[in-house]
Amino acid sequence: MSKLKGLGGERKKKVLAKLGEFGKAIVQDFERGIPPRLKIPSRGTSNIVYDERHRYYVLGPAYGIRSAASMTQVKKLAQTLCVADFCRQLVNSGKFATLREMYYTAEGWETGPFYDQEESNILVEDLEAIFGLKREDLGLMPEEDGAAVFGEIVLKEDNSVIDATKAGRGGYTIPPTIDEVEFVKCKAKRVIAIETMGMYHRFVQERAWKRFNALIVGLKGQAARATRRFIKRVNEELGLPVYLFTDGDPFGFHIAMVIISGSAKLAYINHELAVPDAKYIGVTASDITNYKLPTDKLRELDVARLKQLQKDPRYNTEFWQREIKKMIELGKKAEQQAFAKYGLEYVVKEYLPAKLREVEGEKFINP
Amino acid sequence: MRTLADELFREFREHSVSEFFRKNAAMLGYTGKIRSLTTVVHEGVTNSIDACEEAGILPEVKVWIKRVNEEPDHFHVIIEDNGPGIPEEFIPDVFGKMLAGTKLHRNQQQRGQQGIGVSGATMFAQMTTGKPTEVITSTGNGEIVRAEVMIDVNKNVGQVIRKTKMRGKWRGTKVRFDVKDVSYIRSRYGPFNYLRLTAIANPHVRIIFEEPDGTLTVFERGSEEIPDRPKPMPLHPAGVMADDLLVLAKLTKSKTVGNFLVSELSRMTKERVSEVERISGVNMRKKPSELTWEDAEKVVRAFRKMKFMAPSTSGLRPIGKENIEKGIHQILSPEFVAVVSRPPKVYRGGIPFAVESAIAYGGGAGRAVGRSEEGEIGEVETEGMELMRFANRVPLVFDQGGCAITAAVKSIDWRRYGVDVTTAPMTVMVNIVSSYVPYTSAGKQSVAAEPEIYEEVRNAVMDVARELRYHLHRKQRQKEREERAGIFEKYLPIIATKAAGLAGVDPPSFERVLMKVMGMEDVEA
Lengths: 367, 525
Hints:
The complex is a heterodimer of chains A (367) and B (525). Chain A is of the alpha/beta class and 367 residues long.
């Protein structure tokens, strides 16, 4: 079970070491009389490349320089150091602050207040990109909570031990500080992430978590960073395969794809978020015809978006190209809940087992 | 072809002086209420400075303008100098005789050229108020003369209508003109600016000025050096006109035209006379008085075909680089001055002239847009370029638009010199020095666009503008350096401290890096 030990302590050490090295290099520059300069990986669109091997977006080799020898950059550099030092204090004390709190804290810094929060947010992204660490690792957290998890996993947050089957119908709420959370015990064998909370509750009511030995994750639309990080961690640390179940439309496809391959915007930390092995199970265009699902007509916007996806390198697989093409030809889309046509339990009793057998083959034993 | 002089003399013979004056008021400077007052001040002050210089005295001139009886357009203009004083018998001529001792054809660089001078002011006073001009003067012999002078317009002579004498140890002249139909405004056309300009171009003169509201301004001396008096210069053949020849011929003592040309013109020799005779066909042995208009024209045409040594410039009396600088420092206290005094050139093929120019930047330089309550000269608010034009040290205040100096200065692309003329606190000064300044009109307030003069003014101003550009550039660099230093001094210690905090060590010294970045060009520059 050593694998299930919380990584919080080690992460903290790693982060402090990185910050220390960072500071040391600058101190050494001063001692040698060399104006310190930072190489900051460029996050412009021209430097975001799709990594075929890892199957997610990464930053290219381009970087910008922030030099103490430049009149226009020296202030930014000082602010960057202030943010880094603020993060060191947070990590040291084990506290978390929101980006907004940091923005207000800066009012008291020697470098003076930021012009707006965007300005301080960018410095945080700079540090994330420099260190390859997420802001959560630096003691900064997003405002919003992650999604809900229901299933047989026991977690430890500080001194509370939580069983995700005993946290009420809503399940365990993934906190922004998910990296601090220890996985104490896990009986689940797979993860099923679901786009809508309606379907999530259907799965919970039908005891799908028990039936499929799964952690049911309700994404609430586009997945929050904390949710993605949770999925990444259970996939990586507990070795659970991840299945994604969304509406059968371009937006549902993309909610799944961001979990699989990460977003372009967060290319600099996709190695901490992307779950390239996660599998999309539906609703596919083929499902629409195979299951004769009730549909809606594709809107113009949907078609345009589908055509965009066709060209997106993340969708450059036989499966996706086939399904996208098919959906455009059909001119139809279908929601997850369309399976209710065959009764409320149908999706859990018929559809899901069929799909899981498809992806897991012989390994999957229908309960 | 008749010259202006001929016209003046003809008018003068045919009409009474007062009628002449009225007819020619414009060209004598007596038009408009503001300009007339400035002209009275100009005539009085010029007279005072000339008298002092001629006597080798450092001039000190006091000017009062006092409102009379609260009337809006009635003033006393009082001008006092520390000059040699006027011997009693000359008082009527100096203040009362129009065109006395004509300066025409003396071909000498001087302040006034009209021969009207201060008697014009007497005339103006007499015509507007009917009052005599009061003169108090002493040559320092212990006797002070007080005289009231009027002009007998029929005989064109000055008359002392009342005279008193007193004992006293004093030397100088004090004149009081009683004038109407004038108004006092502190605009660039008014007496204040006129005196300010005079002070700049004549740094050896101390001027004290009291305005009607009692404001007292002292334009202190910037130099103790009395300029040399200009020397009369013979005309150069290349610049001479037929009528010049005829006038000179009437005055000469020479017996033959040939001798007359050698003695009255520069760069003429016996050999050149034979050449003139050969080319023109005019008999050089005839009497000068027998020279006809046609002869004169032929001679002038011959001159045009001949090559002469450049004219002597010994008669030109520029203010001089050093004195201009002193004058400007004294009056404008600018942060920067550049002055150029260019070597003489000729125009119309033979008339020597020289151009001096200066640029003052910052301090009191620039077009005045307001003034402090105390009227301190250095505390005037300024904005944009001010152009100060001078001809032989005399300020040209009027007719700026038609002047070759204005045109030349305007033709310069000031942006190339890093200057926005609408905002830069900058004064451009140009002085044209010549025995014969080509004015556009008899008002003598603007210089004609002779191509050589126009070009030379341009070159002179561009000379000083270049220096201004270097100055502004240096200043900008200095400012940037200071800004740079300020920024680095603020942020480098923060970087050092925070980095040390991250590394868990004591903050390193940032001094070496500071020295280094201050010695570097900005990495983006």
